[in-house]
Specification:
The chain is of the alpha/beta class. Strands 1, 2, 3, 4, 5, 6, 7, 8, 9 and 10 form a 10-stranded mixed β-sheet that branches. Strands 11, 12, 13, 14, 15, 16, 17, 18, 19 and 20 form a 10-stranded mixed β-sheet that branches. The two termini are 42 Å apart.
Length: 404
């Protein structure tokens, strides 16, 4: 039995607003809206109130919750109706406790005259109440609006808690860069999609590799280069590692490799003797086969005797662990060879683009690709998605098949 400690001494969160009892949440929010309306009538500001989605943020501790609350300042344009900031203290299995705070978040849109508002309810649960988190926040959701769940930090070992929150969510946002055991978590995420087909899952890490996917696609926007893509024989991807002995998270590289595999129509060879997987160092290689593609006017698609995908770490201590460093696509057809390379040379925010063709070098250039994306930008893009990200889901299942 959980105890509502909303009116008793205990956890103090000044940034979360006024502490209230569960049954008084709606009354307190209505009072705050009336105060905001009074400000508008005396021309202090013009309020913009919209109702598009419920946004549930699941945090493992107060520090993470405060960081997420501050990040919401940059998400005003997404028109959130109600934010529920759920703090789960899973450090003990003692008696269940529940504490609740309410506030109205107000941010300027054009100037201080016009302001955007949304409701924020902070719910802290501990002990046995953590296992009932979904049931506790369910009455607090605004009805008839989709529920977006953002799970901060690593996925939990106790999948039941996550599954119950997933059951009440339309979309779930995770960040695989924070997975402590990348292979195990990504397998679980793939299985989760199959067990909960009505919920869409997306990943902030997928957004981090979007510029790389776009640059690869731009290679083959050139009509003369397109035939080489159908004759790719080798893909090499490098990701940042802090040191020779340090652990890294290779999921950005795995996402990119799986995406390329699906775009090229490759299948993993049944002969596993050519495959290699070393999760601690983030080193992988697979032999691929069964490529199918249409004939082209310039170069005929040939059955390659060896098609490989290789992922390996590169020591780049100045980059976030797991960040993409290099992608090289090697092509061979009719005795002609071509190489397409993206390379972050010095570990900074610039990527050099190089094309080596049979008759010489193609155009070389350097583009800006940030190594550290702002979390609020990635999150904003995810909140703008109203349906499923089918390409991400397909890629996620491809990673699962590669790691199996």
């Amino acid at each position: 039995m959980a105890t509502d400690k909303s009116t008793t001494p205990g956890l103090r969160l000044p940034w979360a607003g006024k502490q209230v009892r569960m049954e008084h949440v709606e009354d307190e929010l209505m009072f705050l809206w009336h105060m905001a309306a009074d400000n508008m009538r005396i021309s202090q500001n013009t309020n913009v109130r919209t109702s598009v989605l419920n946004f549930v943020i699941c945090a493992p501790n107060v520090e993470s919750a405060y960081k997420a609350s501050m990040l919401l300042r940059d998400l005003a344009s997404t028109h959130i109706a109600r934010v529920i900031l759920l703090i789960q203290d899973r450090s003990s299995d003692g008696p269940g406790d529940i504490s609740i705070w309410t506030t109205l978040r107000s941010f300027s849109i054009i100037s201080d005259v016009m302001r955007h508002h949304f409701e924020q309810i902070t719910v802290a649960v501990s002990g046995t109440a953590v296992r009932s988190s979904a049931s506790i926040i369910l009455p607090l959701l605004k009805p008839d609006l989709p529920v977006y769940l953002w799970w901060l930090n690593d996925l939990p070992d106790d999948q039941m808690i996550f599954h119950r929150l997933l059951a009440i969510s339309s979309r779930v946002i995770v960040d695989s860069r924070l997975f402590s055991t990348p292979e195990q978590r990504i397998r679980g995420l793939s299985a989760l999609l199959q067990d909960a087909p009505s919920s869409a899952v997306s990943d902030l890490n997928w957004g981090r590799i979007t510029p790389w996917r776009e640059l690869i696609a731009q290679f083959f926007d050139v009509a003369d280069y397109r035939p080489y893509l159908m004759n790719a024989t080798n893909i090499t991807i490098e990701h940042a590692a802090p040191s020779t002995s340090g652990t890294t998270n290779p999921l950005q590289a795995l996402l990119l490799a799986a995406w390329l595999k699906t775009r090229l129509g490759w299948q993993r060879s049944e002969d596993a003797s050519h495959s290699h997987q070393d999760a601690p160092t983030g080193t992988y290689s697979w032999h691929m086969t069964n490529r199918t593609a249409p004939r082209t006017d310039r170069l005929q698609v040939q059955a390659a005797t060896s098609i490989t995908i290789a992922i390996q770490p590169r020591i780049q201590a100045e980059l976030p662990p797991g960040a993409l460093c290099m992608v090289r696509i090697t092509c061979s057809a009719n005795g002609e060879h071509a190489t397409f390379t993206l390379n972050r040379d010095n570990g900074d925010n610039h990527v050099s683009i190089a094309v080596d063709l049979p008759d010489g070098h193609g155009p070389q250039r350097t583009v800006y690709v940030t190594a550290e994306h702002k979390e609020n930008d990635l999150l904003h893009d995810e909140l703008e998605i109203t349906g499923r990200d089918h390409l991400y889901e397909e890629t996620l299942h491809e990673i699962f098949s590669l790691l199996t």
